[in-house]
């Protein structure tokens, strides 16, 4: 009798003990809330974003300066390939980073990337310039980037153990699914469009006779608008639907570009208003596009789907700026065709998000998706 009771007790103990799978699942579901461990990773991620996204959002200043100084003898289309390449490598390489992160953790990505950013900026500072201000400005940016990247390398940690069996992050076969394919087209178009105003707004201001200092500050005005533009559309999207908000913001960006920027001429107030309002309404292109992708795929497929989409998007970021530059060059240095090109791309993006919403969820105006 005692042996039978001992056996039953042992079986009950084994049933109540977590298996390897159970332990792994509980690890996956555990998220540190607050405290040094959680907030230090948040701060490290913020530090890592400053050099990469900070430079991306300041392309207009670098374009305006180099096109009138170091690269003044080169065509706008040729100059555009330089800045298009930056966006391309940022998106294309970023899409491939997922499996490396899963398999080896963040340091194998963050440390080489940090070295590359700082070395590139230092080398850029030695390019020829007519006065001392430009090279030292770039060196200061390189120093700040070095500090931010060092903090990121020290603070960023992965929550889960390394997964050496992590798979590839590209799956073009997924484009056979209509929901995912039309969403990818919409994301491609909005990312194709967003870098044209960011890159050319300062150059446009210089072209119409506004002094250089104010022209460079337009990027600051644009980014001031982008601060609330990154999170407020997300709050609204929780109520109205992500695709609905992306269609709306893309349409507003098109109207702002075609009605305000195109007609602003040398009116400084109109140009500043465009920069601020465009910064706000275009912010959703950064914050909501990954969420739109997550809505049309299973959770376990999100890494591959997001990587596939942004690999395709990187082609748009590579070609959008030089195509706009070629249009400007064709028009004899005038910006009308370039501005219309950017506005039409935003209109196409608005239509694409509307179509994606219809294909995925239906055509009712009351649909929240």
UniProtKB/TrEMBL annotation:
Transmembrane region(s): 41-66, 78-101, 108-127, 133-156, 180-202, 214-231, 243-262, 268-288, 309-327, 339-360
Classification via Gene3D superfamilies: MFS general substrate transporter like domains (1.20.1250.20)
Annotated Basic and acidic residues bias: 1-16
One Pfam family from the record: MFS_1
Membrane topology classification: Multi-pass membrane protein
Family: Belongs to the major facilitator superfamily. Monocarboxylate porter (TC 2.A.1.13) family.
Key words, A-Z: Membrane, Transmembrane, Transmembrane helix
Gene source species: Penicillium steckii
This protein's name: Major facilitator superfamily (MFS) profile domain-containing protein
């Amino acid at each position: 009798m005692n042996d039978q009771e001992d056996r039953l007790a042992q079986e009950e103990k084994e049933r109540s003990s977590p298996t390897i799978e159970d332990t792994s699942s509980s690890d996956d579901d555990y998220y540190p809330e607050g405290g040094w461990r959680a907030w230090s990773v948040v701060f490290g991620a913020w530090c890592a974003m400053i050099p990469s996204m900070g430079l991306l959002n300041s392309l207009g200043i670098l374009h305006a300066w180099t096109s009138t100084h170091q690269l003044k003898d080169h065509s706008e289309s040729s100059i555009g390939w330089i800045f298009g390449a930056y966006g391309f490598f940022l998106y294309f390489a970023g899409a491939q980073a997922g499996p490396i992160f899963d398999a080896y953790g963040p340091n194998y990505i963050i440390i080489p990337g940090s070295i590359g950013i700082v070395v590139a900026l230092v080398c850029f500072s030695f390019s020829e310039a007519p006065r001392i201000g430009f090279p030292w400005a770039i060196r200061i940016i390189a120093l700040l980037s070095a500090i931010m990247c060092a903090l990121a390398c020290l603070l960023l940690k992965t929550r889960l153990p390394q997964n050496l069996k992590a798979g590839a992050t590209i799956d073009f076969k997924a484009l056979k699914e209509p929901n995912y394919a039309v969403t990818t087209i919409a994301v491609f178009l909005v990312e194709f469009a967003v870098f044209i105003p960011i890159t050319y707004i300062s150059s446009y201001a210089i072209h119409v006779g506004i002094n250089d200092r104010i022209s460079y500050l337009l990027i600051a005005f644009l980014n001031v608008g982008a601060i609330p533009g990154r999170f407020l559309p997300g709050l609204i999207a929780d109520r109205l639907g992500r695709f609905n908000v992306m269609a709306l913001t893309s349409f507003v960006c098109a109207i702002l570009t075609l009605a305000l920027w195109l007609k602003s001429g040398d009116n400084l107030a109109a140009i500043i208003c465009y920069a601020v309002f465009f910064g706000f309404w275009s912010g959703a292109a950064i914050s909501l596009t990954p969420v739109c992708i997550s809505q049309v795929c299973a959770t376990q497929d999100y890494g591959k789907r997001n990587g596939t989409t942004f690999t395709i998007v990187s082609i748009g970021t590579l070609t959008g700026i030089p195509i706009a530059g070629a249009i400007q060059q064709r028009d004899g240095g005038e910006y009308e065709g370039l501005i219309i090109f950017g506005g039409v791309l935003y209109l196409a993006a608005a239509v694409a998000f509307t179509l994606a919403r219809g294909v995925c969820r239906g055509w009712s105006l009351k649909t929240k998706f």
